[in-house]
Amino acid sequence: xxxxxxxxxxxxxxxxxxxxxxxxxxxxxxxxxxxxxxxxxxxxxxxxxxxxxxxxxxxxxxxxxxxxxxxxxxxxxxxxxxxxxxxxxxxxxxxxxxxxxxxxxxxxxxxxxxxxxxxxxxxxxxxxxxxxxxxxxxxxxxxxxxxxxxxxxxxxxxxxxxxxxxxxxxxxxxxxxxxxxxxxxxxxxxxxxxxxx
Length: 197
What we know:
Elements: E1 2-11, E2 14-24, E3 29-33, H1 40-48, E4 55-60, E5 63-64, H2 69-73, E6 76-79, H3 91-102, H4 106-112, H5 128-141, E7 146-150, H6 158-173, E8 177-181, E9 192-195
Parallel strand pairs: 3-8, 3-9, 6-7, 7-8
Antiparallel strand pairs: 1-2, 1-4, 4-5
Helix pairs in contact: 3-5, 4-5
């Protein structure tokens, strides 16, 4: 279980949020909603261990999630606003490191997001939606139980969103957790909404 208790975070001198709390069980999904600048991305960065709370605690199975940052990092797969795609590498080459770490095949990841026909294409040739799908395919290669997603459907067409919904459902069925920041509905049935701002 992932939990936050009375968390406060500052960015520079600005208080982004305070007294924030939630509990997310295995298989659960939490959707972060709110206007731009309300702290959705900051909360994702906090849960990833990239930002420290000014007050409160983030817990993993009841223990301080950040007492071992390297260990916590192995529990998290983070997809941010940027797709983190190397334009000079092919689609397959962009995934080789993630595949080597997880021991999972690149082909399965590409098939899950419908990019198998573009495996040998340089990433610079991809459309914005295809780059986003490539970024999301790293989730298939991850063994992390917690997926942190910042506007994950940005640039995706309807068919790609449906495929993404299948990935989310399979991850949750295995006991994985999802925390996603979004301005649009996501294919996350029974997700709990946390409204910021």
